[in-house]
């Protein structure tokens, strides 16, 4: 694993530090506050070009990233930005999965149709990154239990949910994450009644 220098990153969410971690052909990024608390707030965020950069309404990724940066700035901690687009299938295959979703498949069915597992992501580098910072305990900002239980030597003392209001374009995507991938997502009665068909 190669590790870059630390640089300043002033953003509209606050002033952060950044450092890149390179493993094999993947270049990951850590965005962190200057004074890390002993038990920092940590968000493990997998790259989503369409949601993070283009503002896609088909997922909740961009909103989760924005929420995480705001909370990390307030509480102290880091966002670990992993370069594993489309739940690990890459951008090219993600666009093909989008096309299958346009024809009525959900995200899991689309991945299977393309010959992939529902979620191909690998979170093993996260533990190495946290150890590099000397972190042993974290508060984890996630709805995904796979992230919560992906550590051997790092203790998750608290899982903090990310609550994002659904929209008509991503409600079925969120329902699929909840029902097929076990994500801990809550829907209020209005969305359940009007969009949970």
TrEMBL record:
Keyword Transport: no
Keywords: GTP-binding, Hydrolase, Metal-binding, Nucleotide-binding, Riboflavin biosynthesis, Zinc
Pathway(s) of this molecule: Cofactor biosynthesis; riboflavin biosynthesis; 5-amino-6-(D-ribitylamino)uracil from GTP: step 1/4
Claim: GTP-binding is one of the keywords in the record: yes
Enzyme Commission numbers on file: 3.5.4.25
A GO CC term attached to the entry: cytosol
Protein name: GTP cyclohydrolase-2
Annotated GTP cyclohydrolase II domain residues: 7-161
Function: Catalyzes the conversion of GTP to 2,5-diamino-6-ribosylamino-4(3H)-pyrimidinone 5'-phosphate (DARP), formate and pyrophosphate.
GO terms for biological process, alphabetical: riboflavin biosynthetic process
Cofactor(s) needed by this chain: Zn(2+)
Top-level taxon of origin: Bacteria
Catalytic residue positions: 119 (proton acceptor), 121 (nucleophile)
The record's free-text note on cofactor binding: Binds 1 zinc ion per subunit.
Catalytic activity: GTP + 4 H2O = 2,5-diamino-6-hydroxy-4-(5-phosphoribosylamino)-pyrimidine + formate + 2 phosphate + 3 H(+)
Residue numbers binding Zn(2+): 48, 59, 61
């Amino acid at each position: 694993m190669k590790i870059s220098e630390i640089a300043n990153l002033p953003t509209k969410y606050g002033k952060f530090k950044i450092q890149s971690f390179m493993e094999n052909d993947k270049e990951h990024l850590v965005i962190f506050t200057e004074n890390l608390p002993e038990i920092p707030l940590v968000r493990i965020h997998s790259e989503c070009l369409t949601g993070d950069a283009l503002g896609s309404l088909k997922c909740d990724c961009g909103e989760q990233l924005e929420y995480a940066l705001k909370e990390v700035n307030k509480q102290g901690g880091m966002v670990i930005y992993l370069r594993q687009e489309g739940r690990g299938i890459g951008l090219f295959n993600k666009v093909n999965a989008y096309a299958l979703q346009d024809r009525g498949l959900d995200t899991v069915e689309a991945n299977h149709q393309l010959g992939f597992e529902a979620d191909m992501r690998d979170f093993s580098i996260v533990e190495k990154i946290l150890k590099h910072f000397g972190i042993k305990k974290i508060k984890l900002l996630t709805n995904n239990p796979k992230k919560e239980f992906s550590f051997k030597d790092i203790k998750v003392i608290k899982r903090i949910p990310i609550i994002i209001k659904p929209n008509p374009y991503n409600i079925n995507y969120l329902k699929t994450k909840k029902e097929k991938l076990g994500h801990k997502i809550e829907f209020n009665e209005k969305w359940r009644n009007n969009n949970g068909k």
